[in-house]
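Let us begin with a simple case.
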Amino acid sequence: MASPKEKFYEVQAAGIIKNLSKRKMEGFYCANVEEAKKKLCELLAHTEEGQSEKKSVAYGGSMTLDENGFKDAVKAAGHELIVREDYKTAEEIKELKAKTVNADAFLMSTNAITLDGELINIDGRGNRVSFLIYGPESVIVIAGMNKVVTNVEDGLRRVRNTATPPNCIRLDCKTPCAVTGKCGECFGDSICCQFVVTRMSRVPGRIKVILVGEELGY
């Protein structure tokens, strides 16, 4: 039997999914990570003709993806995972950019998602948000319900004060938030360079959001 919190997540997700649809994005709810992996592989396998095929899959930096085996699930399903950590030199990174922008699918999480279905992301170099906006044929966003916020303003506060400080500590960035645990509006070694709010998808159904009834990532 579902706990009150699990039921709450399910009910809350249903409202978000309805609002995502209004914004030409597709939403799905999975109670846990294992269900989310199955949904991810199902979405990757689907074609307009209803047939299964192997896809080229790229991804952005994400603790949600790294800590919960989503990339391993993609490989186990037989898809071509473009492993960005394998590209190190300047020429290799150029090749990685070309492969990613032309990938069949791009995986990422989101720093926050509003109850009204808006995605909020803050990025350093902007590579992650750029592929969300344009390029790969499909974008699949996987987000724990801990990423849900009331509105865009709350989302920006969440990213600055909840998500960014541990990321800066992890990346050894010399930022005020890595020391104090809260945003210092810095201009130094900051990873908060690009603020992107996705209010809708220009291409209907290109962005798909899998909401997971667990706390995932930062």
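The second case is a distinct protein. As before, the sequence precedes its structure tokens.
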Amino acid sequence: MSQTQWIPTEIDEGAPSAARAYDYLLGGSSHFPADRQLADRVLRTLPARDMSRANRKYLARVVRFLIGEGITQFLDLGSGLPNMDNVHEVAHRIDPTCRVVYVDNEDAAVAHGEMMLDGVEHTTIVAADIRDPDAVLTTVGGLIDLSKPVGLLMLGVTQFLADEDEPWAIAEGFRTAIAPGSFLALSSFTWDSDPRTMQNTIDGFRSHGESPIVPRTRAEIIRLFGDFELVDPGLVFVSQWRPDPDDAPSGQRNMYAGVARKPDRG
């Protein structure tokens, strides 16, 4: 894809996009100066580049694991841009028939994503806000068969939900709707290892008039899984979740990660 084929004509390149800033942190090329400025502000207080890349490696390991468990359809909530070895790319290398639906509420992410996914089979991106599970599930109802197991991905998204958004109720809404045998994969910023760095990051967001992130404790993140059964190794730091043999050791301890299975009902 050329440098211009991912840019919709209606996009305001001067307005920063969280999705494009994340692409910049991952080492991609789908971003503008305003996005790099946003990311660079975060980098002043938080090792966001290392965190982003550790999270993307975790995504790949999760997708491979879920396909090994028989999952062939994925719902990626708060997906950002569908590039840089994202879900469909990892999944389709193993099983080209896997269905992948990306969901994002950022207009820029959806507009870019529609262009990036043009011609990609079994994959789409839709505009919806994960704070309204019913609306999301209605939107994707013709794309994902909710009567069959789903790989539900909430990677690096819950820290953008304030407590007032009731993230535990949001997670419950999605958990309730998916079939037994489905999996929920999570990763989320945490206070537990480095609260000072996290507080400095929150202060930095506020000083620029932006909504702050909401890191959470291990106990708060585990609540998001409800009665789903965590698979080994449970909730761990993101680089510790089933690392590949060739993964370099990582000291990244600012994010928790875990995968849990919806139990079969008797």
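The chain is about 35% helix and 15% strand. The mean pLDDT is 92.
Keep these points in mind for the review questions at the end of the chapter.
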